[in-house]
Amino acid sequence: MKKLFHKALATVCIASMLAQPVTPLTGNFMDKAKAATVEQNETKDLYKNPTIEGPYADPEMHIYGDQFWVFPTYDNWSYEAQMNFDCFSSKDMKTWTKYESILDMSTFDGIWRAVWAPTQIEKNGKYYILFGANDLQYNGDKGGFYMGVADKPQGPYRNVRKDKQPILDTIENGAQPIDAHMFKDDDGTIYIYYGGWRHCNVGILNDTMDGFIPVEDPGPLDPNAQENNKFVKSTVFKELSLHEYVEGPFMIKRNGTYYLMYSTGGWTNSSYGIEYATADNPFGPFTSQGKIMATDYAITRSAGHHSAVYDKEHDQWLICYHRRRLMKEEDNGAGLRSVCIDKMDFDKDGKILPIRMTYNWDWIEQNEINIQNLARNKECTYFARTVEGDNYGPEKAFDGMIASDSRWAQQGGTGGGQYLGVCFGKKKTFNHIYLKFQRLGFWDFLDGNMKFQISNDGDTWEDISETREWTPEECEKKGSNYDNIELYKVNEYFDKPVTARYVRVYFPKETSINSIYEFEVYDHSQNDKTEQLKLCREAAAKYTNAELAKTKYKKADVLAYKQAFVELRQAVRDYTVTTEEAGTVATKFKTVVATLEKNANAPTVVKPTPKPVVVPAKGVIKKLSNVKGKKVVVTFKKLSKVKKYQIRYALKSNMKKAKTVTVAAKKQSCTVKGLKAKKTYYFQIRALGTSGKYGKWSNKKQIKIKK
After folding, report:
1. Which residues, in sequence order, are bridge partners of residue 212?
2. Are strands 301-311 and 212-213 parallel, antiparallel or unpaired?
């Protein structure tokens, strides 16, 4: 959601963009919430994206029992129209039930606009929802974070505070109170991560969920860690130092590691995406692990603000996020968002693999095979002769994104000999260079003034193309579709593959301002991954459709298969893997598949039916006698084939915090001491048989202790 200059955006006409009619989120909340079943998928075996058609954004996903739940923001360019939440539930992620207006707004005082980004959690059988309201801009304004509580996930949610006020209405550490996420750790502690304006805070919610437990002041941050560090530090929240953090934090824990994911870039344009960082505790420090989601112009734009869940039944992680559809000319720069769900995989080292955004989870059929972009991997470094300011460095032309702040631009007036290039780290063979650049009103730098060069030492350069003229007619044009960028594309193919450590585009003459969005290098001459692609396609049919959940497969084989499939899929799409390495992974996958099928088709070994275990009958308490003040004599029925008896007693009929006493098999009574006067106690008994199995607990008997 965000966040500024909304009045100008409110004039945008959105009626033509709505994918389906939307029920207005107004009216009397006390009317019963309507539950409408929405058919989201026409395909039998695959899942559909968008999962929940717009206008919805900022989704938080949970699994309660056998149901998936999604809690999103109602998306509208008019903040005044965002005055409640809908939520959705499904058992199969194909058919969704919609619950409208889940907040009882009469219990939340002072809200008049911008009800954003819900975060929801279960605690002790109750359900809590926290959200930002009013787009708080200054301390002293009305708004901030409100907390609601309900008996069911779908509400109705009423304010946890009787005075109807927010639980946080101030700007702490420079973080606007928006985009919160409540994270429950293994010990039951509930942390909150939140913040807009490029500041992220972490805090701890109190036991009553209506305030916060102060955290230790961490002291001054590294002055280079944040863009703006002028705010007074909070004693309630700790500010986290996160690489390029913008908004939308979300925490998961896996194998003892804390993964803090968050959105970067601009929420309205193609620079929007998701990065993550890891730590060994909820407060960090966090180590950046890079980007896992970015605009994919084959699918969508502005994807981000997500949540993630572990689907235990199918042993898979899922990421739930919003994205905008690819815009058309008539959309006039607008575009409401929709909720999507895709798989989230980890490699063998525990790192999150880049997310494949899909229409139906079948990324292989959808994307075929991506030939390696040799200019984009961890070994590459980037260089240019000049740069127009800190925001337009050469690396921006190799990041896979097309946005106004993601391009290389040369410094004007610095003469001829401008260049932009990449060092692969080691020699690479390629036969295709692909440039994406913007027309800025000047074409002289294409008029016989552009060629490509290679080098092995970075000093001596060899031409691999003629200095030729490129005209607008020769370029493939994508006009004004992507964030109003008039994008032109240049494809340069070479008759024979060339091999070098460096490659650059070179402009011999003085030019107007060059602006290159993407510089990509490919080798089509050695694309022999067809066999790996075929294997992946065959594997996806089983893996995507959860065939492995069938009982004919052994658990160990299933785990080995899934790991091998993830490695194979990564090898096919990885920028850095070689053909030889991909072949090795494919061979391993074949072996695992053969073992899986062999074990699954092996003759079933019929094991002899074990003899039934004899469990003693349920114990019976005959009598309870209060003797000598704070003692009770328990008399019970003697059973046969018993090793011992166990008696438990408690002050509550549900037997919580019960104490136990063990009694020898030959006895028929025992004395329980140390009871409290004038208190009523409940007693039960059971027996441990000679088979080693306990029988059932007896019916409860109660007795009140005398003075």
Report:
1. 205
2. unpaired
Q: Is the dihedral of CA 236, 241, 244, 249 positive or negative?
A: negative
Task: Evaluate whether 503 touches 453 at the Cβ level (below 8 Å).
Answer: yes
Mean pLDDT across the stretch 562-570? 76
pLDDT score recorded for residue 84: 97
Token pair 């003469």: residue: 415
Residue 73 gets the label, from left (phi > 0), alpha (psi -120 to 50) or beta, of beta
Token pair 């027309």 in the structure block, residue: 439
**3-state DSSP call for residue 102?**
coil
Helix (H) or strand (E) holding 702: strand 701-704
Contact between residue 113 and residue 134 where contact means Cβ atoms under 8 Å apart: yes
Query: Which residue in this structure is represented by tokens 């525990």?
Result: 350
Per-residue pLDDT tens for 105-120? Answer: 999 999 999 999 999 9
Identify which of 212-221, 541-550, 641-650 has the greatest average pLDDT.
641-650
Identity of the amino acid at 702: Q
Please state, in angstroms and rounded to a whole number, the distance separating the CA atoms of residues 698 and 570: 57
Per residue in 461-508, pLDDT tens? 999 988 776 666 666 655 444 445 667 778 888 878 899 999 999 988
Q: Which amino acid is at 287?
A: T
Pair of tokens at residue 127 = 């359900």
Q: Tokens 């359900």 map to which residue?
A: 127
Under a CB-based contact definition with an 8 Å cutoff, are residues 63 and 97 in contact?
A: no
CA–CA dist 54, 154 (Å, integer): 19
The C-alpha angle with vertex 434 and arms to 429 and 437, in degrees rounded to 5, equals 145
Q: Give me the active site residues, please.
A: 58, 247
Q: How many CB atoms lie within 10 A of CB 72?
A: 27
pLDDT exceeds cutoff 70 at 343: yes
Q: Looking up tokens 């209405």, which residue turns up?
A: 169
pLDDT tier for residue 441 given thresholds of 50, 70 and 90: very low
Q: Is the dihedral of CA 553, 555, 557, 558 positive or negative?
A: positive
166 phi and psi angles, rounded to 5 deg = -70, 160
Average pLDDT of span 512-523: 82
Pairwise CA distance, residues 677 & 80, whole Å: 62
Nearest Cα neighbor of 211 from 142, 160, 135 is 160
Q: Is the pLDDT of residue 595 over 50?
A: yes
Which among 269, 346, 329, 265 is positioned nearest to 300, based on CA atoms? Answer: 269
Distance, in Å, from the CA atom of 537 to the CA atom of 364, rounded to the nearest integer, reads 6
Match 């050469």 to its residue by tokens: 394
CA separation for the pair 61, 306 (Å, rounded): 9
What was the pLDDT predicted at 169?
95
Read off the pLDDT of residues 204-218 as tens digits, 9 standing for 90 and up: 999 999 999 988 654
Q: Mean pLDDT across the stretch 402-424?
A: 85
- Whether the pLDDT of residue 605 is over 60: the answer is yes
* Measured distance CA(502)–CA(394) in Å, rounded: 14
Residue 516 tokens read as: 């290159």
pLDDT score, position 307: 98
| Tokens, residue 323 | 């994205």
Write down the pLDDT at residue 269: 74
Q: How wide is the angle at C-alpha 35 spanned by C-alphas 64 and 111, nearest 5°?
A: 85
DSSP 372: -
Are 21 and 15 within 8 A, CB to CB? no
Report CA Rg, the chain: 32
User: What is the 8-class DSSP label of residue 674?
Assistant: -
Q: Does residue 473 or residue 651 have the better pLDDT?
A: 651
| Euclidean distance between CA atoms 291 and 351, whole angstroms | 11
In the chain, the N- to C-terminal Cα span, in Å, equals 65
Question: CB atoms < 10 A from the CB of 703, how many?
Answer: 18
- Asked whether the beta carbons of 315 and 258 are under 8 A apart, the reply is no
Q: What's the CA gap between 103 and 157, in Å, rounded?
A: 5
